[in-house]
């Protein structure tokens, strides 16, 4: 009986640890695309503005929207929501998968 109780306790502890590791965070940065991951669209020049370039890279070249925070670029799970904020500074709330550098997006809003 004792091993069964220990196993149950360890299982609950593991679930608790995983839940704590998956806490929501807020990230601030610029919505860009993975062809211009540092939000510098001068090389691609796919449109007259950074937003037009990012949207063209996504729609024409199959790129994905990212959040660039000045150091790192993160893939965003919600591409439709990200499109509305192309080339804008935003706050993204969600859960980061550090292995894949993907944010499971809960919300995106304009940053002040």
> Helical segment tally?
3
The radius of gyration over CA amounts to 19 Å
Number of strand elements: 5
Main beta sheet, described?
A: 5 strands, mixed, barrel
Shape: globular
* Mean pLDDT metric: 86
Low-confidence stretches: none
Span between N and C termini? 57 Å
Summarize the helix and strand pattern as letters.
HEHEEHEE
Which structural class best describes the helix and strand composition? alpha+beta
Helix content: 25-40%
Spatial sequence of strands, sheet with the most strands: 1-2-3-5-4
Content of β-strand: 25-35%
Helix/strand layout:
Blueprint: H1 2-21, E1 25-33, H2 50-61, E2 65-68, E3 73-76, H3 79-83, E4 89-97, E5 102-110
Parallel strand pairs: 3-5
Antiparallel strand pairs: 1-2, 1-4, 2-3, 4-5
Which key phrases capture this entry?
alpha+beta, 5-stranded mixed beta barrel, 33% helix, 112 residues
Protein described:
With 112 residues, the chain is of the alpha+beta class. Helices cover 33% and strands 31% of the residues. A 5-stranded mixed beta barrel has the order 1-2-3-5-4. A hairpin with a 4-residue loop joins strand 4 and strand 5. The chain is globular, with a radius of gyration of 19 Å. The protein starts with a helix and ends with a strand.
């Amino acid at each position: 009986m004792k091993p069964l109780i220990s196993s149950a306790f360890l299982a609950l502890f593991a679930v608790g640890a995983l839940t704590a590791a998956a806490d929501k965070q807020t990230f601030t940065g610029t919505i860009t695309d993975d062809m211009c991951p540092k939000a510098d669209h001068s090389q691609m020049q796919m449109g007259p503005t950074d937003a037009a370039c990012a949207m063209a890279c996504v729609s024409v070249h199959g790129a994905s929207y990212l959040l660039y925070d000045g150091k790192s670029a993160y893939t965003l799970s919600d591409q439709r929501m990200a499109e509305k904020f192309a080339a804008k500074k935003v706050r993204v709330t969600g859960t980061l998968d550090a292995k894949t550098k993907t944010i499971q997006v809960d919300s995106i809003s304009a940053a002040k």
